[in-house]
Amino acid sequence: FWMGCAPGDRWCGDDEKPRHQVHLDAFYIDRTEVTVGQYRGCVSAGRCTEPRTDSHCNWSESGREQHPINGVSWHQANAYCSWEGKRLPTKAQWWRAALGDGDDPYPWGTDSQTLRMRANFEATGTREVEYSPAGVSEFGVFEMAGNAREWLRPEQEETMQAPSVGGSWQDPEYTFSTEWREALPLGFANETTGFRCIRHVEP
User: Fold this and answer.
1) CA-CA distance, 166 to 47, in Å (whole number)?
2) Any idea what the Cα angle at residue 106 is, between residues 91 and 196, rounded to 5°?
3) Rounded Cα gap, residues 81 and 100, in angstroms
4) What b/e readout covers 96-105, taking b as 16+ CB neighbours within 10 angstroms?
5) With the C-alpha atoms ordered 23, 157, 33, 44, is the resulting torsion angle positive or negative?
6) Quick one: which of 119, 121, 192, 198 has its CA closest to 152?
């Protein structure tokens, strides 16, 4: 599939040039962001540590078991995926799952008029996972746009930062873009960022 800037994209960053084809081995990706309830299982097993409990963090809020876990650092997200026998996705894997084969700007296609119905941006908090079937990608993956930003695997092994992509409930909609991503310290955790995991398909 193609990654990088679409022809004529004047907002394209230098790190997204030139447009290029990427070949990936087959993989499975979680259909939803990891939920509070799922993460609680890892904590109960002694393999994960508790996340932050600041304002808008879901861990200590009642009735949030089906909301995405947030307030987790990259280290905590990585520990959970390892516990499940999985890994955090790379940038290429994540965008493949989000946008499929085409050049459409959103998981659901090109329709920007219904974005607020399909994705949770500039809101008052997270929503339950799978809240909007109208927002799924062509592979049936939920909430790739909005709700919680998602940690990715760093592109270099020896690094102190990792990408956070997809935009969150607190962000403007333009943060869902292949050209927009924020590298955050691995120990950083706040109310906007969660994650999902991938697993390689055995040959």
Assistant:
1) 27
2) 40
3) 23
4) bbbbbeeeeb
5) positive
6) 198
Q: Name 21's bridge partners.
A: 2
Q: Check whether 13 has a pLDDT greater than 60.
A: no
172: cis peptide before it, omega within 30°? no
Residue 147 to residue 130: CA distance in whole angstroms: 10
Q: What is the pLDDT of residue 11?
A: 47
3-state secondary structure of 153: coil
Mean pLDDT check: name the lowest of 21-25, 27-31, 57-61, 112-116. Answer: 21-25
d(Cα 193, Cα 181) in Å, to the nearest integer? 12
Q: What Cα–Cα distance (Å) separates residue 190 from each residue in 9, 25, 69, 132?
A: 32, 32, 11, 24
66 and 187 in contact (C-beta within 8 Å)? no
Instruction: Give the integer Cα–Cα distance in Å for 75 and 48.
Output: 9
Distances (CA, A) of 105 to 25, 75, 112, 168, 170: 23, 30, 9, 17, 20
